[in-house]
Structures are given as C-alpha cells and as structure tokens.
C-alpha cells in the first residue's frame, strides 16, 4: 500500500475519497488550509495552502500518489490553475507521485471562466512530466439539489429551455478515483456520467411536488454560447452512465436521513 495525499480532502468529494483510500489500506493525508473541522477516520491532516504554496513541500513528501480534488470556482485562476502548478512543482521536487485529477464533463466545450480554469489545470498536469490520470464527471447530486433549492424559492421558477443534467453519485466518483490510484497512471479516463439524463424542467417540477410548493414554472430560451452548449448536451455523457444511486434514490436517502435526525 502507498501514502496518498488528497487535496480538497475536507470537501464533499475529498472526504469520501479519503475514506475509500483508507479502506483500501493506504496511508492517507488530507491537505487542508486549517486543522479545523471533523476528522476523517484513517486519515491525517497536513496544513498547506494551494493559493500560496505554503506547506506543499511537506504535504507531498514521501507520497506515492496525489488525488487532486481541491477547487474554488470563485478563485479558479488562483486555486485551480496556480494552485495546481504549485502542487506539481512540489511533487516533482519530492519524486514522481502519480497525480489523479478530477475534472468536469464539458470543460472543453462550455465557455465559462471556471471551466476554462479546470481545462488549464488538466493541461498543466498532462505536461508536468509526472505520471497522471484525469477523470471528468458530471455534476454531483448535491450540486443539482442545491441549484434546484435556489430556483424553487422564487415566486415564478425560471427554467432554461432544453437544458438537461446527468447527476452522478459522489460515492461512485470517490470509488473510481480510489481505484485509479490502485490501477496506476492511465492518462485520460472515459468521462463518467450519472445513470440518468433528466430535463431540468422535470427536475424542478419534481422538486416542487416533493416539497408541496405550488409555483408556476416558466421555460425560457436563454441566449449566449453557454446556454447553447448546455442545450447541445455538452455537460452530458449518455454513452457512459455510471452505477450508483439514481436521482430518486438520492432524494429518498436524504429524506430518510432527515427523519432519523429529527
């Protein structure tokens, strides 16, 4: 077994990756800007900052692999691009750890600053001289759920016409990344999507039914290249659907958790 560093190891995906790696018998380090927060069983926390490079040399020392999950849509040039460059420099100085990077389906086709930053990070990893694996996935259930929650609070719910999502189980993604560590460098893996492609309008109406809210839903044709890319399905991978829980499974599991907590 190996020593594996997980960046973004306190986040939604990173915590699950750390647990999966620990269950496989690896020694796991979680990179965090602070030691605060709940501990992850089987993992140690090392304090470092991708935005400045502080502590990165110590974080990567002695590692055989790095699972790079850290991201910040609000500071993508600093964290996703610059932070990846700083991490790779530290990794090269420490040896030749295998870098496993999680990216997003459509980063090369959907024109946003955040996606451009993710694509730049991919290209930096590919050109780093280090052994590497990149996995692009569709949006996690939790991301889609948060977006829908914001929309259905409005008195009239606007829905972009023609948009579809393919939400994926974050546990499934974590397992794929842990398996990538075990399998060794593989370059670009096939993109991974969730088990269902669902129209956003259908998701919104389902969320309204589940919450008992009555809101008019207004489907609107949005202008611009970003909206056109989503209408064209640039965020989807219909030919490579994962296992893991469906959207309904996710909602049912969340409801059970809330009942137990209550």
TrEMBL record:
It comes from the Bacteria. Residues 8-141 form the NAD(P)-binding domain. Gene3D superfamilies: NAD(P)-binding Rossmann-like Domain. InterPro entries: ComplexI_NDUFA9_subunit, NAD(P)-bd_dom, NAD(P)-bd_dom_sf. It holds the Pfam family NAD_binding_10. Transmembrane segments: none annotated. This is SDR family oxidoreductase. It comes from Geodermatophilus maliterrae.
């Amino acid at each position: 077994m190996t020593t594996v560093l997980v960046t973004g190891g306190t986040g939604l995906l990173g915590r699950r990756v750390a647990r999966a790696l620990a269950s496989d018998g690896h020694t796991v380090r979680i990179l965090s800007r602070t030691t605060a927060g709940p501990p992850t069983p089987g993992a140690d926390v090392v304090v470092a900052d991708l935005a400045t490079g502080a502590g990165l040399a110590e974080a990567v020392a002695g590692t055989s692999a790095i699972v790079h999950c850290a991201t910040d849509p609000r500071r993508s040039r600093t964290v996703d691009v610059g932070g990846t460059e700083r991490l790779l420099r530290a990794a090269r100085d420490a040896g030749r750890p295998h870098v496993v990077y999680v990216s997003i389906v459509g980063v090369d086709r959907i024109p946003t600053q955040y996606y451009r930053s993710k694509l730049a990070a991919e290209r930096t990893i590919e050109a780093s001289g280090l052994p590497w694996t990149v996995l692009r996935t569709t949006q996690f259930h939790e991301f889609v759920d948060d977006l829908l929650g914001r929309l259905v609070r409005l008195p009239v719910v606007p829905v972009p016409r023609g948009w579809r999502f393919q939400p994926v189980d974050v546990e499934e993604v974590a397992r794929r990344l842990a398996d990538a560590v075990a399998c060794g460098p593989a370059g670009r893996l096939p993109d991974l999507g969730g088990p269902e492609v669902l129209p956003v309008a259908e998701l919104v109406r389902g969320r309204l039914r589940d919450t008992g809210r009555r809101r008019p839903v207004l489907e609107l044709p949005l202008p611009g290249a970003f909206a056109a890319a989503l209408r064209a399905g640039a965020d989807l991978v219909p030919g490579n659907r994962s296992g893991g829980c469906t959207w309904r499974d996710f909602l049912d599991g969340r409801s059970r958790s809330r009942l137990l907590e209550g």
